[in-house]
Amino acid sequence: QLFEDGLAVRRAVLGKEYVDQAWENASSFSRPGQELITEWAWGTIWRRPGLDRKHRSLLNLGILITQKAWLELALHTRGAINNGLSEIEIREAVLQATVYCGAPSGLEAMMVTEKTINEMVEKGEYKRQEAEALSLVNALAFEAGDLARNRYCACLGDASYYLG
Q1: Are residues 62 and 111 in the same domain?
Q2: What pTM was estimated for this model as a whole?
Q3: 60 and 118 assigned to the same domain
Q4: Domain count, the chain
Q5: What H or E segment, with its residue span, contains residue 69?
Q6: Percent of the chain scored above 90 by pLDDT?
Q7: Predicted local distance difference test score (pLDDT) of residue 164
Q8: How far apart are CA 62 and CA 45, in angstroms?
Q9: Are 22 and 10 contacting, i.e. CB atoms less than 8 angstroms apart?
Q10: According to the model, what pLDDT value does residue 109 have?
Q11: N or C: which end of the chain has fewer CB within 10 A?
Q12: How many other C-beta atoms are found inside a 10 Å radius of the C-beta of residue 56?
């Protein structure tokens, strides 16, 4: 039963087509690995209470970036979208990871996640939301305003702005 439950979660997150193909392509050598991951990760961990799928996906993105696991990052980017993360939330997760993992990892992660999202849009699997586009514009405007405030305060020598 654990395998069947895990298979259902895995299909819901990663997509039925991918999961079924991975299972069909598994050799007699690799099939035990597929079974282990399906039962342990998907049947046990992903079904535990305490974190919803959206938060588990967010965690996975950061973990996979630290491991430089680019194929898995692409796969779990798809899962993150399927679990309700927005394009902007994914981008912000990559930016956060960039600070801690370094620019080369962050830049590669940005390319992988963007490519995956664009492929999903092209295939009709994901539709960009107008609210996401507006949020991106607002975020850029906020950053521009913050830069302007920092320059203004620096020119005046007003350290109180930086001290809160």
Answers
A1: yes
A2: 0.77
A3: yes
A4: 3
A5: none
A6: 77
A7: 42
A8: 17
A9: no
A10: 98
A11: C
A12: 18
